[in-house]
Amino acid sequence: MIVCSCNVLTDHDVRSALNPDGGNARSAGEVHRCLGCSRQCGRCMHTIRKIMNDTGCSAAHAHAHAHVS
Ligand code: FES
């Protein structure tokens, strides 16, 4: 699914930017930066935030585990 049509970013791209190994983006603006592009029209920001919320929990868990082990 294309999330950002200006930069042709998919939901997969966004998730990988949120991953600690993929840039560890902590805000919607950082997602663009991590993916090597910049925010343009901003229409995708809402969707990116939603993806961040959806993945936020599991990312935090993965991070916690990485620290424990
Ligand atoms: S759709 Fe993402 S900046 Fe335009």
TrEMBL record:
Annotated GO MF terms: 2 iron, 2 sulfur cluster binding; metal ion binding
Keyword match Hydrolase: no
UniProt family annotation: Belongs to the Bfd family.
Annotated ranges, domain BFD-like [2Fe-2S]-binding: 2-53
Gene3D superfamilies: BFD-like [2Fe-2S]-binding domain
InterPro entries: BFD-associated_ferredoxin, BFD-like_2Fe2S-bd_dom, BFD-like_2Fe2S-bd_dom_sf
Cross-referenced Pfam families: Fer2_BFD (PF04324)
Alphabetic keyword roster: 2Fe-2S, Electron transport, Iron, Iron-sulfur, Metal-binding, Transport
Protein's name according to its UniProt entry: Bacterioferritin-associated ferredoxin
